[in-house]
Design brief:
Largest sheet: 3 strands, antiparallel
Number of strands: 5
Distance between the termini: 48 Å
Strand order of the largest sheet: 4-3-5
Helix content: 55-70%
Number of helices: 10
Shape: elongated
Radius of gyration: 25 Å
Order of helices and strands: HEEHHHHHHEHEHEH
Length: about 300
């Protein structure tokens, strides 16, 4: 009797194909806390600049600021940004974002190990989660991911500093009243915070996906098991058509990497890729039921999209 094909285990939901929603919520909560602290510190620094006016609502005021005071103000803002965004640390130390990189990598690896173990008895007897995460290739990948993330947050901090310096410098030079200046400062911080949140989502899902690609490749190289990556689109209203149309299709890890390496596809993407077995001809081993289900998901998304 022919054995029925074992379908891959797809994590999350149709809106969260990577299963990282909980991790992302925790990351965004951390970012909100940090930027709330940063906002309070920066506004307090600005409020220490002397103002000569009858009241805070005057259209134009005169700031009692010298080049030395401005330099000190910028140094204090730089220190605040270091404290809340960069943490003033070097990559060799534990950076505040490192735990999120670690968790994303481990979650992706755990998903792969669990999925491949139920797809292949050969895999189940050869590899375990503990074995994989203690391996040198895994530790190297996580280390490189940490450095990449640290460099990003360092760049974001520098960008935020430049933006704040421009806003405060212009407000002082133009004599803008403090109330209006504070609003501009908060808007500048909001831009930086929005970019931080965008990066958090991108980095978490990207780290998880890369962990899965790596485990799929290791499985093929070390055990000779042919693996394809079943694309599971996050069928949200904001999902790009080029992403949604891949739902249910199977690609090689090289093809997936190439897709994410162009046209900004890696940004704001909630799609996932799940390992599936390939037969001797390289065709994916999937049940007809799963194939039809994913086709129906895509069609429903297209219909819903057309009605927006």
């Amino acid at each position: 009797m022919r054995e029925r094909p074992r379908n891959p285990a797809i994590p999350g939901t149709a809106r969260d194909r990577t299963g990282t929603a909980g991790l992302l919520r925790n990351a965004l909560a951390q970012i909100n806390r940090r930027f709330d602290g940063l906002r309070k510190d920066v506004l307090a620094i600005f409020d220490r600049i002397p103002v000569y006016a009858l009241n805070d609502e005057a259209a134009l005021v005169r700031y009692g600021i010298t080049p030395e005071v401005m330099d000190m103000t910028m140094l204090e803002i730089e220190a605040a940004l270091d404290r809340w965004i960069q943490n003033g640390r070097e990559p060799r130390y534990l950076f505040w974002w490192d735990p999120f990189v670690n968790q994303a990598a481990q979650l992706g690896t755990a998903q792969s190990v669990a999925n491949l173990a139920q797809l292949s008895s050969v895999y189940a007897t050869a590899r375990t989660l503990d074995l994989v995460i203690s391996s040198e290739p895994y530790r190297t990948r996580v280390g490189l991911a940490r450095i990449k993330s640290y460099e990003h947050w360092t760049g974001l901090r520098a960008e935020g500093q430049s933006r704040l310096a421009a806003v405060i410098g212009r407000a002082v030079a133009d004599g803008l009243n403090p109330h209006a200046a504070r609003k501009l400062i908060e808007e500048a911080l909001g831009v930086t915070k929005s970019k931080a949140a965008q990066y958090a989502q991108t980095d978490i899902t990207d780290t998880l996906r890369q962990a899965r690609w790596a485990e799929a490749e290791a499985t093929t190289q070390e055990l000779g098991i042919k693996i394809g990556m079943l694309w599971t689109s996050a069928l949200q209203p904001t999902t790009r058509a080029t992403h949604a149309m891949r739902n249910g299709r199977v690609y090689s890890t090289d093809e997936v990497r190439a897709f994410y390496g162009r046209d900004g596809n890696r940004y704001n993407c909630h799609c996932g890729q799940t390992e599936c077995l390939l037969d001797a001809d390289g065709k994916p081993i999937l049940s007809n039921r799963l194939t039809r289900m994913m086709e129906a998901e895509q069609q429903s998304w297209v219909l819903a999209k057309s009605s927006y």
